[in-house]
Amino acid sequence: MQTTAAEETTVLVVDDERDVAELYSAWLGTEHDVRSAHDGHEALDLVDGVDVVFLDRQMPGMSGDEVLDEIDARGLDCRVVMVTAVDPDFDIIEMPFDDYLTKPVGRSDLLEMVETMRTRDSYDEHLQEYFSMAAKKAALESEKNPVELDAHEEYREVSERVEALREEADTAATEIDDFEAAFRDFPGGS
């Protein structure tokens, strides 16, 4: 994606409920270039050149999950946010999305998420994976009780992966800080 502040973000809203898609498009259209699709096939026809996709999971014909898999298979350079009435379950762990919003969502939720996705897109793959895994963990924690979470090996694996990625990110940040400090101390450094 690699947009700059001066560039307009292209957003694709995918929802089979036309009223919902139109509402989201109107909200987002005040600040972004918006495309709208009402089924999975139409979404795949419109996704090229899109920066952020807001994708409903439950759609007749081709589900949002199938659209997500196809976006991933094509290797498209866009962020995908699931926006759905489907409460998150353990099946989300392996899904290649960037974040998960459970309906109902408001205008500010969508606009903030576009900015979050723009920021995340500037991160390296490691940090993008960290935020994606952290979003999945948070979505599950918002829906499941601690007993349910503890009973699933997949959740424990996600938790461990999030922690490992966080530690790697902390280490990288420390190394950058150390490098910058050394550069400042170097004669002629800033």
Overall outline = globular
Structural class: alpha/beta
Relative helix content: 40-55%
Tally of DSSP β-strands = 5
Instruction: Give the amount of beta strand, in percent.
Output: 5-15%
- Give the N-to-C terminal Cα separation: 31 Å
Summarize the main sheet: 5 strands, parallel
Order of helices and strands: EHEHEHEEHHHH
> Within the largest sheet, what's the order of strands?
2-1-3-4-5
- Low-confidence sequence ranges: 1-6
Helix run count: 7
- Going by CATH, what is the homologous superfamily? Response regulator
CATH class, please? Alpha Beta
What's the number of structural domains?
Answer: 1
Give me the CATH fold name: Rossmann fold
Structural Rg: 19 Å
Q: Mean of residue pLDDT? A: 87
Q: Judging by the overall fold, what is the CATH architecture?
A: 3-Layer(aba) Sandwich
Secondary structure layout plus pairing:
Layout: E1 10-14, H1 18-29, E2 33-37, H2 40-46, E3 52-55, H3 64-74, E4 79-84, E5 99-102, H4 107-121, H5 125-143, H6 146-150, H7 153-185
Parallel strand pairs: 1-2, 1-3, 3-4, 4-5
Helix pairs in contact: 2-3, 5-7
